[in-house]
Every structure is written in C-alpha cells, then in structure tokens.
Specification:
Blueprint: H1 6-14, H2 28-46, E1 58-63, H3 69-80, E2 84-89, H4 101-111, E3 114-118, H5 122-130, E4 136-138, H6 146-160, E5 167-171, H7 176-188, E6 191-195, H8 204-209, E7 214-217, H9 220-224, E8 229-232, H10 244-250, H11 258-263, E9 269-272, H12 294-315
Helix pairs in contact: 2-6, 2-12, 3-12, 4-5, 6-12
The chain binds phosphoric acid mono(formamide)ester and norvaline.
C-alpha cells in the first residue's frame, strides 16, 4: 500500500521551507521585520504577557561546540512560546559516531518542527538544511554567526535607530562574527571598517564581493575614526585554542579600551558577542564603559531568536 504515502511526500516536497544559514537568507525588509518583532516580543515579555503560539512544537538544538547564550536563549525562547526544546550533543548522539549528515537530517527533521545547529564546518549546516523537511538555523559555524547579528542589530536599533548609512568598525580576527558583520553591512546597507593584523583577514572572496562598503585597516586608530559602533570578539575562537599564545602576540595592538572609544564618534556604542577575555581583546573596564551595551546585546539573543523562530515557522507552513 505504498501509494498511501504519496500525498504526504508531495506535501513535504511542496512545502516552502525557509532556512537561516547566513544573513543573506533574509531581505532587508525581512531583517527589519525580525528586529521590530524582537523589540515587540521583548516588551510583551517585560509586561508579563503570556504569548505561547507554538504549543507542541519541538526545537532540536544540535551542539558540536560549547555555548551559554545560544543554548539558554533558544531553549528559554521555545519554552516561552509554549513549545519544547531538545538538547542534542554530538557526544551523545550518532552524529558524533559518524552517522551521515543527510541521514541524520532526514530522521531528526521528520520528528521535530525546527532545528538549530552549532558546529564546525559551514558545509555541515548546508548539508543538513538540504535534507531537512523543517527550517534549519545556523547557531554558529567556523564561517558565520548570523543569530548574533540579529541581536546586535536589534540592540543598535533600540539605542540609535536605523543603522543604514552608519559606519561600524570590527576590531580583531576576521572570523565567523566578522563575516556575519560583512553580510549585515550588505543587507542593512552600512559601511564596515575592519581593523585586523596581516594574516587574520576575513575571507578575501567575501571582502571582494563587498568592496563598495568594506575596508581593511592595519591601524586600529584609523579604523575607529568616525565610527558609530565598535565591535570585537575573542582572538582565538572555538577550535583555535592551540593558537591562543601566538594570537595574543599577533593581536596585541588590537585591544578595544576607553582610549580607543574616545577616537570614535561621541555617541558610538560598543558591542561584544561574549564570552569576553578581559585584558586581551578588551581592557578590564571596557564592559562597564558608558558606551557598552554588551549585556543588553546578550539578552537580545532571546528576543531576536524568538522573532526568528516565529518568522521561519510561519513562513514554512
Ligand atoms: N555569543 C554566543 O554565541 O555565546 P555562546 O557561545 O555562549 O552561545
Ligand atoms: N568567534 C567566537 C564566537 C563565540 C560566540 C567563536 O567562534 O568561538
């Protein structure tokens, strides 16, 4: 009686599944819509309003790297929506024992409603999404961290309004966060200065594609001049722990501190995705600087990802 399955297969194949693997999966209007919805969901929660539109929906959270903010924000967000979140570590699942991504994607997505993945190679989230029947969210790969940008751009909007036409300076490694800032600059139309030592540039292809708005500087002081937002991140990302000492030497001139903030515009904000290493990429006092919105930025992971999950679930029906 195999023909009984055809309508189901057809329905799955015809579903328009929206994934969020990089910021380029969103138009500018959709990015703005998610920021505004995040701000709305935040004020609803602050008013104590119960908003649970997704009872019985289950979010799978696949983690191949450590996390505090990402796990807590996704799990809390889905619980607040009336759904459930399931933590899946590669250490305890067959993913860690080499089960192919496409088999895992087919099986996991057949039982869940939405999946987030934090992993190493970006091709893993791409492969998973290709074989998934439900929306897939990139919760950080070696190449991109788009969820963090949703929270960062929400935070900027709350303090300063639209970022279009502004100048942002990224200080430090040309890493996954830097790549997502390049994509954000493209989608939201801002200028991006990148201050990094030679040898730690972001992807040359990505920079070349965005050469109309992205400029690389070797001198941090030149880069922050006239900037509206200064952002940095750890010098050694997850998976680069063995390079820590070498990187401390290479990045010694790339610390964000109050003196550096003074060179930016008077109203400039400071962000860091956290976790931070005080005394390395930031001075001991930087998180307490009046320009710092870092802890609001961290809280906004919750609101921004709730807005994202709502967007993807509704768009993929
Ligand atoms: N910023 C961020 O993604 O934090 P976690 O690694 O703690 O999830
Ligand atoms: N670049 C950092 C971001 C952590 C949220 C890393 O990949 O470890």
């Amino acid at each position: 009686m195999s023909f009984c399955y055809w309508p189901l297969l057809l329905e799955t194949a015809m579903k328009n599944i929206r994934h969020f693997l990089t910021l380029l999966d969103l138009s500018q209007a959709e990015f703005h819509q998610i920021i505004h919805r995040a701000i709305e969901l935040k004020s609803m929660r602050n008013r104590g309003e119960n908003f649970a539109p997704f009872p019985n929906k289950v979010l799978g959270m696949i983690f191949e790297k450590s996390s505090t903010r990402t796990r807590v924000s996704f799990e809390a967000g889905m619980a607040q929506f009336g759904g459930h979140a399931m933590f899946l570590s590669s250490r305890d699942t067959q993913l860690g024992r080499g089960e192919p991504i496409q088999d895992s994607a087919k099986v996991i997505s057949s039982m869940l409603d939405i999946v987030m993945i934090r992993t190493f190679s970006h091709s893993i989230v791409e492969d998973f999404a290709k074989h998934s029947s439900v929306p897939v969210i990139n919760a950080l790969t070696d190449d991109y961290h788009p969820c963090q940008l949703l929270a960062d751009m929400q935070t900027y909007w709350e303090h300063r309004g639209d970022i279009q036409g502004k100048t942002v300076t990224w200080v430090g490694d040309g890493n996954n966060m830097c790549h997502s800032y390049i994509n954000a600059a493209k989608v939201l139309d801002f200028k991006l200065n990148i201050a990094c030592p030679a040898g730690y540039d972001p992807s040359p292809e990505l920079v070349a594609k965005n050469s109309d708005r992205v400029t690389i500087f070797r001198d941090i002081k030149d880069a922050v001049h006239n900037s509206d937002l200064i952002v940095t991140d750890v010098w050694a990302s997850m998976g680069q722990e063995q390079e820590q000492l070498a990187r401390e030497k290479s990045f010694a001139d790339y610390q964000v501190n109050p003196e550096i903030m003074h060179l930016a515009n008077k109203e400039a904000l400071f962000m860091h995705c956290l976790p931070a290493h005080r005394g390395e990429e930031i001075s001991d006092d930087m998180l307490d600087n009046p320009s710092s919105v870092v802890f609001e930025e961290a809280e906004n992971r919750l609101h921004a990802q709730k807005a994202l999950m709502e967007f993807l679930l509704n768009a993929s029906q």
